Every structure is written in structure tokens, then in C-alpha cells.
Amino acid sequence: MTVGFDHPSRGTLFSAVTTHLDMSGAIQAAAVVLLAALTAAAAQVSMPLPFTPVPFTLQPMVVLLGGAVLGRRLGMASQVLYLVAGIAGLPVFAASPVLPQGALRLLGPTGGYLMSYPFAAFVAGYLAERGFDRRYLTSVLAMGAGLAIVFACGVTWLALVAAPAAGFGVALRTGLYPFVPADIFKVFLAAAVMPGLWKLLR
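Above: the chain sequence. Below: its structure as C-alpha cells.
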């Protein structure tokens, strides 16, 4: 027997699947917790770089993919939950030789990146709800828009709060340029996932 899913031109992959399931509220809550946990797990896959206080992690890809799958509301909620868990002291942030886990991490050099995650997930989810994730090129645009928010917030935080004496020049050299090639590759990779998942539903 074949089970089919309706997938109108608007809506997320998550909503297309859960439309046919009971207990949608409980499922939504579980999805939010799961994405927050995946974001925390991605933070543990980190690579410190000697020329910048910002480590290389897999978090942006998880944030953007999660926002696209769950949509703007649930995607944003998952990242807010992730930050709340970090502020409470749970070991969900990337390892750092300078700052301990907890609320102080948001005041450090990576604070801008971390606090951008709810907004990046919101934007990726908003565009996915409008069908941007159904085709590869528009999926790239959705993921790229979310990544631009991550970089904009992260670099601005570095320049104005974490190291104001250094200015935007140093912030760009330490918080943007080293990560652009790898993160663009991750955007291209993440953007390919969504159209493939929609094809599976058909």
C-alpha cells in the first residue's frame, strides 16, 4: 500500500508530513526539542582556528536546515530553546578555552553568531513556507539569506561589543573571510537536501 502526502505550493516539509498525524501539538514540541538538541550536537563538532576566536562548527547548516524543515515559528522556537539551555549552564555551546559554558558565552566573541540563530532559522523557515525549498536555486537563496543574518550579526557583535577597539576591519578578517568558502559550500549542500526530501514525499 502506498501512502501519499499532499504538498501544496505553500507550507513546510514538516507541516506536509504531520498533517496526517495525530497529536500535532506534541509532535511539534518534540520537533523543537530535537532541533535544539541537534544544534547542541553540531556545536560539539568544532574546530578552533589559531587566528580567530570564532571556531568552525556545523551549527549554521543545522540551524538553516531546521528552520526550512520546521518553518519560521518552530524553527525560531528551537533556537530560542537552544540559547535558553546554554544560558542555564547546560554544555550546549562549542568548547572554548576562554569562556565557560553559561550566559557569559553570549557576551564573548561568538555571542553575535549564537544570538543570530533564532532570526536565521526564522528567515529560512519563512522562505521555505513560501515554497523556496522546493527547487534548488530558490533553496540556495533561502539558505543564503539565513547565513547572511548569521554573519551580519556575528561580525557586528565582534566589531562593536566583543572587540570594539579593533573595528570592522579586524572583525571581517577574523569573523567572516575565513569562513565564507566552507559556509557557502555548506549552503549549497543544505540547499540540495530540501528539494530531494520533497521529491521523496511525492
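The first helix runs from residue 13 to 18.
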